[in-house]
Amino acid sequence: MLKHVRPALVLLALFTLLTGLVYPLAMTGIGQAAFSNRANGSPIVRDGVVVGSSLIGQQFTRPEYFWGRPSSAGQGYDARSSSGSNLGPSSQALADRIKVEAERYGVPASDIPPDLLTASGSGLDPHISPAAAQFQLARVANARGLQEDVVSSLIDAHVETPSLGILGEDRVNVLELNLALDELGRAPA
Amino acid sequence: MKIEGWILIFVFAGLVALIARPMGLYLAAVFAGRRTWLSPVLAPLERGFYRLGGVKDASEQDWKGYAASLVMFSLLATLALFALMQLQHLLPLNPHGFGPVAPNVAMNTAVSFVTNTNWQAYSGESTMSHLTQMAGLTVQNFLSAAAGIAVAVAFARGFARRGTGQIGNFWVDMTRATLYVLLPISILFAIYLMASGVPQTLAGSLPATTLEGVPQDIAIGPVASQEAIKMLGTNGGGFFNANSAHPFENPDPWTNLVQMLSIFAIGAGLVVMFGRMVGDERQGWAILAAMCALFLVGTGIAYWSETQITPALMSAGVDPSLGNMEGKEVRFGLSASALFAAVTTAASCGAVNAMHDSFTAIGGMIPLVNILAGEVIVGGVGAGFYGILLFAILAIFIAGLMVGRTPAYLGKKIEAREVKLAVLAILASPLAILIGTAIAASTDAGRAGILNPGPHGFSEILYSFASTAGNNGSAFGGLTANTDFYTYAHAIAMLAGRFLVIIPALAIAGSLAAKPTAPASVGTFPTNGPLFIGLLAFVIVIVGALTFLPALAVGPVAEATANTLN
Question: Are residue A101 and residue A146 in the same domain, yes or no?
Fold first, then answer.
């Protein structure tokens, strides 16, 4: 076995250097130079403050914002501990959690778009379905004193559709939609 | 179910078939030592590696030497990775100041990444320093995949050669796999991922203040470089806990498609390479056809099942028309989540873009069954290929018994020694799975890890041993796997599933390479036609069913039929 030690040690060291340092550091150089915003986590800056990442969902609780999906990441949208609920298909705990989530909307669960009652795989899902956004339309418009059709057309403008018709689902980025809502409020009357 | 979902599944299968041939031709050139268009850059580097390592690239090894090199390389890699995790608090590139990884988890993780399993008993963003992710985990993502490819190539040589005991040089095959195949594709892939939004930085976090004024600390890091090889090498160990469900690992439906294709790319290419090496490409396509049939059946069932509502959602009164979205991301939806689950378990990848633990009972059984079938449907880089050829040997043997003729495959007589070794390799993982599951299900230490009670809890245990012994790495993630019991039990399963398959496979390769090749005659059973494809698929299903039906009946089947909450 001893004759195998030298190539094993040397090649392990060389490949650690090549694939463990040179490769990731070179990619970091390319990323920082060519895709600076994306390589740094796609931050969204408003008034000089980073308000989040366009790819990462965040917790919304106030009535004047659209709410995202339930999250099992930490205490909810904890972007340092991504996680799904891992509750199984016949889990009583899952059924109980959904009933609590439904109370948040004050209507029977059957009337609520299912993505607003189910937790995402990452706990950081930035999207909801267009139906889930329309479902919250009245509350948001009311809280902001806006016309419903104004908010509705804002939703429509934020719907992303499947690429080539088959890749992905219709979806709305909640943070971007809420940012646009805030902008609407700031616009000169 | 939506027609778009089905189109996606078939488009995906078609794209894999399109990739297989160019990839196979490239692999064949690389491992025959022919010049490729990358040679001007890489050949000097390759020669330098050999010179420093004292590797005589012109001299080949018999199967024992090949296996010994691989085992020694794996052993040293495991020790080095363990040491890195123990020392990460003393080393640079640790922006969150993480301490040393708990010894049992570090041991489990070192074994996991060196065996190409990438089972994760830890949560990446809250455990591993950037240096550990880069110089430890990323490196083993490359090298464990390269070792698997090397074994596949050596195995193919067993059929292609005659009258020699030599099956290649492990150091050369492993080095070429890394330099010519894995690294160049990973570079392109990583650049694409960065352009799509996957972070690549040495910073540890992106601090933000949400619109509601709450601080949100967003974990980032050198993700893209690891993500690329994680998929291409069918490793599956995510930078983040949520793996490819995390928007930073898999930002949009396009990256999702490319990730799925990259899981299958090399595995499918190896099959075509095999056909070229044995001088009949149809032999490779026959194998690929058997794989494809099994894959589409499983994927279709999983997709259908996920469009159904679960008892938990039903009991809470959720609208049943949109299926089971618990544990899934809106941007992927049901079909791309079910497809990803089937792909990642058909190959021994183990990356996930949705939480398998929250799948419907039958939808979650499909990935489990894919793993239990030996991950031979396309398969992991290398592992899937030698896995399905072991089944092919068994299929040929059974066919030979039925017609009363000495079985031969590709002109090589399949005799007692090869069949015994093939059966040993085929049974190694099932033994580890069933014994491990039995022990865990009957001890307090094992049952303590369960999240979901009832039959689903048993499924969590069964899935964990299937995933570790099958070197897959995906999970029913509710299971608490960082306990002493599970870290050691799973480590044993991972080692058994890797080396008790590789060593017999190499022994078969050595034995076959030494045999003469008999010319085909009218009595030869053709192994490039539909009869053989059917027989091969049949043998895989029968062996899997005979071994695992009782366990599946207690877990997912019981859950699907009981229809009660626990």
Answer: yes
Element (H, E) at B205: strand B205-209
Number of folded domains that form chain A: 2
Span A162-179, pLDDT tens digits: 999 899 999 999 999 999
Same domain, A152 and A99: yes
Residue B424 lies in a domain: yes
Flag if B357 and A87 touch (Cβ within 8 Å): yes
* Tokens matching residue B143: 């090298």
Check whether residue A27 and residue A117 sit in a common domain: no
Per-state percent for chain A, helix, strand, coil, to nearest 5: 50, 10, 40
Clarify whether residues A8 and A54 are in a common domain: no
Task: Based on the fold, state whether residues A142 and A168 are members of the same structural domain.
Answer: yes
Helices (H), B470-529: 484-514
Say whether A95 and B315 touch across the interface (CB within 8 A).
Answer: yes
Per the structure, the complete domain to which residue B420 belongs is given by 381-562
A119 contacts on B by Cβ (under 8 Å): 326-327
pLDDT tens readout for residues A60-98? 999 999 999 999 999 999 999 999 999 999 999 999 999
CB contacts, 8 Å: B459 with chain A: 88
| Predicted model pTM | 0.96
How far away is chain A from the Cα of B152, in angstroms, using its nearest Cα? Answer: 20
Transcribe A113-151 into DSSP letters: -GGGTS--SSS---EE-HHHHHHTHHHHHHHHT--HHHH
- Write out the two tokens for B311: 């008892």
Number of domains present in the structure of chain B:
1
Name the residue among A1, A7, A126 with its Cβ closest to that of B53. Answer: A7
Q: Do B211 and A65 touch (CB under 8 A)?
A: yes
A24 and A46 part of one domain: no
Taking only the tens place, the pLDDT of each residue in B223-269 is 999 999 999 999 999 999 999 999 999 999 999 999 999 999 999 99
User: What secondary structure letter does DSSP report for B309?
Assistant: P
Instruction: Determine, yes or no, domain membership for B519.
Output: yes
* B456 part of a folded domain: yes
Quote the strand ranges of B154-310, DSSP E.
Answer: 166-168, 205-209, 215-219
Q: Are A33 and A54 found together in one domain?
A: no
Check whether residue A83 and residue A166 sit in a common domain.
Answer: yes
Segment A117-128 mean pLDDT: 98
Residue-wise pLDDT tens digits, B163-202: 999 999 999 999 999 999 999 999 999 999 999 999 999 9
| Amino acid identity, position B460 | E
Determine the distance in angstroms separating the CA of B198 from the nearest CA of chain A, rounded to an integer.
6
pLDDT above 70 coverage of chain B, percent: 100
Range of the domain at A87: 42-186
Q: Using an 8 Å CB-CB cutoff, list chain B residues near A39.
A: 194, 199-201, 224
Taking phi over 0 as left and psi of -120 to 50 as alpha, with beta for the rest, B116 belongs to left
| Closest approach of B22 to chain A, Cα-based (Å) | 25
